[in-house]
C-alpha cells in the first residue's frame, strides 16, 4: 500500500485531528479510520463512469498513536473489487496532500 505519512505527532495532536475529522462527518466504523471523499473533478474517467454503480469514491486516513497515514488508493465504497479501485493520479495525490496539510494547519498542528 502506498501512503502519505506524517509522523512525530503527539497524542494531543492525534486527538485534535480526530475531533476535527469527526466534526466533518468523515467517520468510518473504526474509531481511528476516516473516509475522505474524492472531489468529483479529481475522479478518473473510469471512476466517473462507475460513480453510480461503485461510488462514492474515497481515500482512507488512519490515525495512529503518533502519526497519520493517508492511503493513496482510491476505494469504491459501493464495490469491494472493481477496476475503478486504483491508486490516485498525481493531481489527486497533490490535492489530498495539500488538503491534509491545510487540515493540520487549521487544527494548529505544526509538523
Describe, in plain words, how this protein is organized in 3D.
- Strands 1, 2, 3, 4, 5 and 6 form a 6-stranded antiparallel beta sheet that branches.
- The protein has 4 helices and 6 strands.
- Helices cover 35% and strands 25% of the residues.
- It is elongated and about 40 Å long.
- The chain has 111 residues and is α+β, with helices and mostly antiparallel strands.
- The model has no long low-confidence stretch (mean pLDDT 96).
Rounded to the nearest angstrom, the radius of gyration is: 14 Å
What share of residues is helical?
A: 25-40%
Number of strands: 6
User: Which structural class matches the secondary elements?
Assistant: alpha+beta
Q: Averaging pLDDT over every residue, what do you get?
A: 96
Listing every helix as H and every strand as E from the N terminus to the C terminus, the arrangement reads: EHEHHEEEEH
Termini, distance in Å? 23 Å
Label the overall shape: elongated
Helical stretch tally? 4
Number of domains: 1
Report strand %.
Answer: 25-35%
For the biggest sheet, the summary is: 6 strands, antiparallel
Question: Which blocks of ≥5 consecutive residues have pLDDT under 50?
Answer: none
Amino acid at each position: 500500500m502506498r501512503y502519505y505519512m506524517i509522523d512525530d505527532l503527539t497524542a494531543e495532536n492525534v486527538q485534535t485531528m480526530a475531533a476535527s475529522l469527526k466534526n466533518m462527518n468523515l467517520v468510518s466504523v473504526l474509531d481511528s479510520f476516516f473516509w475522505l471523499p474524492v472531489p468529483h473533478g479529481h475522479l478518473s474517467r473510469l471512476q466517473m463512469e462507475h460513480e453510480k454503480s461503485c461510488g462514492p469514491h474515497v481515500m482512507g486516513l488512519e490515525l495512529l498513536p503518533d502519526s497519520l497515514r493517508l492511503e493513496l488508493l482510491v476505494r469504491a465504497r459501493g464495490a469491494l473489487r472493481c477496476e475503478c479501485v486504483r491508486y490516485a493520479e498525481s493531481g489527486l495525490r497533490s490535492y489530498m496532500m495539500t488538503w491534509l496539510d491545510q487540515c493540520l494547519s487549521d487544527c494548529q498542528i505544526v509538523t
